[in-house]
């Protein structure tokens, strides 16, 4: 059995239910198209990793979809806010016997398999690893035992999340990776012309 596991949190790709801040600028359909491309990107880079992948759906598990591949195991996110959902997923993974648990979202077009491998290696000598997002959150979190403080008393979705989390972990050994850009708004999307070209057909959006 692998000692490591990668958790992937995803929203079910349904019209009007994902990338709502982006949709405010580009519309629901194009926001959905962008999110589907981000999901495919996340699947493709994570498939290169020789460790189990646990896909945590937000609302319901889909039987046949992009995640219906070997070494991808489908699960459902717990009830509660993002912190509660992540804490439950980490707790389940440690209970199952995994020694290194790494979670990533599904809205970063800059992360790749090497970031996960680096985080896994850093956990040899550190308790936690974070991949900071430019918006003040994080695109990756790795732990080798459950630190509940990570998931409590945070204003999820705001630019204070990472700073508040690191402040709660001053007594722990923590490593921080390179900052990357999550795609939540049209401003975020501007840094990825390939997405604008392939999904928005080079339309000018103001």
General description of the model:
- The chain has 206 residues and is α/β, with parallel strands linked by helices.
- The protein has helices at 20-26, 28-47, 82-95, 113-122, 161-167, 186-189, 193-200; strands at 4-10, 53-57, 72-76, 100-104, 128-132, 138-143, 174-176.
- It has a 7-stranded mixed β-sheet, sandwiched between helices.
- Helix 1 crosses helix 2 (28-47).
Can you identify the CATH superfamily? Spore Coat Polysaccharide Biosynthesis Protein SpsA, Chain A
Largest sheet: 7 strands, mixed
Order of helices and strands: EHHEEHEHEEHEHH
User: Rough shape?
Assistant: globular
Q: Tell me the number of strands.
A: 7
Instruction: Using the CA coordinates, give the radius of gyration.
Output: 17 Å
Helix content: 25-40%
Number of domains: 1
| Average pLDDT taken over every residue | 92
Going across the major beta sheet, what is the strand order? 3-2-1-4-6-5-7
Beta-strand content bin: 15-25%
Structural class: alpha/beta
Low-confidence stretches: none
What's the level 1 CATH class?
A: Alpha Beta
The number of helices is: 7
